[in-house]
Write a structure and sequence with these properties.
alpha+beta; OB fold (Dihydrolipoamide Acetyltransferase, E2P); Chloramphenicol Acetyltransferase; 3 domains; 24 strands; 23% helix
C-alpha cells in the first residue's frame, strides 16, 4: 500500500490477513539514505499469527522512518517515506491509487526468485570468484536451507554468485555450484578422536570419528529478543527485561488455554526403525538429486501416522462441549522450531500425498517458517500435530496439545541399542514415540492401539518400499 505525492511515496502498512488489524515493526532492513529497489524488503513485520517482510512498492531512496522498531501500528498507517523523485519512471509508472505497475519482466524475475539473474548481467551461479557486488543488498543473508547445503558440500558461500532477489543466494545457486565443481571451503570440520580398545594389547588406540551435528537449522545470526538492563535489584544483582513479542504472547495464551482446558494424558512406545534407516540411506542421495530436497525420517513418520489415523479416525477430532467433531481431512500440523518461537504450519490433506510429496511439503513449510515467509493459510486448519523432537537429540518428551486438537505426537531421536530378539541380543536402531492426548475424547485403549498401528507401519517399511 502506498500514498504518493510529488517526489515522495508514503509506504502504508498493508492488510496482511482479514482478521489482522495491526502489526509490530520487528526490524528495519533499510535506514534513511539507503537506496531501495522495487519489491525489495524494507522491514520485518511481526503479528500474532505470522511474521512477514514488507516489500517496497517503488524504487527510490529511504527518506524517513515513521514507525520505529517495536512499535505496533494499525493497518493503513504510514510506516516510512521513500523519495521517488528520480525513480518513478524506472519503476514502470504508477497505477491506480499510487500502486506501481511492474513490467512483465520484473514480475517474472520476482516470481522465479531471480532464476534468470545470470542473463541480466549477474555472474554465473557456479563462478568460483569472490562476489563483492555492492548492488546486492541481500547478498549476505542466507536461508537455513542454503546454509545446510553449503555445510553438507563444504562450500564457501562468499564464492557463490546469488541469482535471487537483491543478490541473495538460492538453493539452486548452491546446487549449480556443486555441479560446476566449486572448490570446498578452506575451513574443514574438525576430526573428533574416539578411543578404541586394541584387542590383546591392553591399550586404547585413537581412531577418527565423523563429526555429528545436532540437526538444528540455526541461522547465521540467530534472532534473540532485545534485552534491557532494568537496574540494580536487591542483593546487587541486575535484572534483565525481555520484551514479549506478539508471537510469544500468542504462544503463551494458547499454551495456557491448552493446559487449563484439556485434561492431558501421556503414553509412549518404542519402535524398531532399523529397516527404515536402511531404506532412507538407500534412497536419500538419489532423491536429493531428483527432487532437490532432503528425504528425512519425518516424511516416513507422517506417512505411518496418516495411515494409522485412517484406521482410528477418532484421533483426528476436536472437543465441542456437547459433541466430538471428527475431521474428514487429515491436516497435519508440523511443529517447526525457530530461534525464538515454535510455529505449526499445516500439511493439508496429508492422506492424499505419497512419501515424496510429504518430503517436499516438509521442506517447503520448514523453509518458509524459518524465513518468516508463512502466510495465514499455511498455519490454519490443522487436525493433529506431529513434532520431530529427535532432530535435536531428545529421547523422551511430553508435548502440550496444540489447542483445540486432540493429540500431539513426537518422534524422538534414533539410537542404536542392544535389544532381545527371539532370546538373542542384536543391535538395532530404536526410537521412542510419545503421545499427548485429550482425555475428554481419547482413552488409553484407543491411543495404545493407534500407537501400535503407527509402530507396525514404521516397522513395515522395507527396501522395496516406494516413495511415489
Amino acid at each position: 500500500m502506498t500514498k504518493q505525492t510529488a517526489g515522495r511515496t508514503d509506504i502504508l502498512l498493508p492488510q496482511l490477513a482479514e482478521s489482522l488489524v495491526s502489526a509490530t515493526i520487528g526490524k528495519w532492513l533499510k535506514k534513511p539514505g539507503d537506496p531501495v529497489e522495487q519489491y525489495e524488503p524494507i522491514c520485518e513485520l511481526i503479528t500474532d499469527k505470522v511474521n512477514a517482510e514488507l516489500p517496497s512498492t517503488v524504487e527510490g531512496t529511504m527518506l524517513e522512518i515513521i514507525a520505529q522498531e517495536g512499535e505496533t501500528v494499525p493497518v493503513g498507517s504510514v510506516v516510512c517515506v521513500i523519495s521517488t523523485a528520480d525513480a518513478t519512471a524506472a519503476a514502470g509508472g504508477v497505477g491506480n491509487e499510487g500502486e506501481p505497475a511492474p513490467s512483465s519482466a520484473t514480475a517474472v524475475d520476482t516470481a522465479s526468485n531471480g532464476a534468470a539473474g545470470a542473463s541480466a548481467g549477474r555472474p554465473a551461479p557456479g563462478a568460483a570468484s569472490v562476489v563483492t557486488d555492492e548492488n546486492a543488498p541481500m547478498r549476505g543473508r542466507y536461508s537455513p536451507a542454503v546454509q545446510q547445503l553449503a555445510q553438507q558440500y563444504g562450500l564457501d558461500l562468499t564464492r557463490i554468485a546469488g541469482t535471487g532477489l537483491g543478490g541473495r543466494i538460492t538453493r539452486k545457486d548452491v546446487l549449480q555450484a556443486v555441479e560446476h565443481g566449486l572448490p570446498p571451503a578452506a575451513v574443514q570440520a574438525p576430526i573428533v578422536q574416539q578411543a578404541t580398545f586394541a584387542a590383546g594389547t591392553g591399550d586404547f588406540a585413537r581412531a577418527p570419528l565423523s563429526v555429528r551435528t545436532t540437526g538444528l537449522h540455526l541461522s547465521e545470526t540467530p534472532a534473540i529478543p532485545k534485552v534491557e538492563v532494568e537496574g540494580q535489584s536487591l542483593g546487587g544483582r541486575n535484572e534483565y527485561i525481555l520484551d514479549v513479542t506478539p508471537i510469544r504472547n500468542t504462544i503463551a495464551t494458547r499454551m495456557r488455554q491448552s493446559v487449563a482446558e484439556i485434561p492431558h494424558a501421556w503414553t509412549m512406545i518404542e519402535v524398531d526403525v532399523t529397516n527404515l534407516v536402511l531404506l532412507r540411506n538407500k534412497l536419500k542421495d538419489e532423491f536429493k538429486k531428483q527432487e532437490g530436497v532432503n528425504l528425512t525420517y519425518l516424511a516416513f513418520v507422517l506417512k505411518a501416522v496418516v495411515n494409522a489415523i485412517k484406521d482410528y479416525p477418532i484421533m483426528n477430532s476436536v472437543w465441542a462441549v456437547d459433541k466430538i467433531i471428527v475431521k474428514r481431512d487429515i491436516n497435519i500440523s508440523l511443529a517447526v522450531g525457530t530461534e525464538d518461537s515454535v510455529i505449526t504450519p499445516v500439511i493439508k490433506k496429508a492422506d492424499q500425498k505419497n512419501i515424496a510429496g510429504l518430503a517436499r511439503e516438509i521442506e517447503e513449510l520448514s523453509r518458509k517458517a524459518r524465513a518468516g515467509k508463512l502466510m495465514l493459510d499455511d498455519i490454519q486448519g490443522g487436525t493433529i500435530t506431529v513434532n520431530n523432537t529427535g532432530s535435536f537429540g531428545s529421547i523422551l518428551s511430553y508435548p502440550i496439545i496444540n489447542y483445540p486438537q486432540a493429540a500431539n505426537l513426537t518422534f524422538e531421536t534414533i539410537v542404536k541399542r542392544p535389544v532381545v530378539i527371539q532370546d538373542m541380543i542384536a543391535v538395532r536402531s530404536m526410537a521412542n514415540m510419545c503421545l499427548s492426548l485429550d482425555h475428554r475424547i481419547l482413552d488409553g485403549v484407543i491411543c495404545g492401539r493407534f500407537l501400535q498401528r503407527v509402530k507396525e507401519n514404521l516397522e513395515g517399511f522395507t527396501l522395496d518400499t516406494k516413495l511415489y
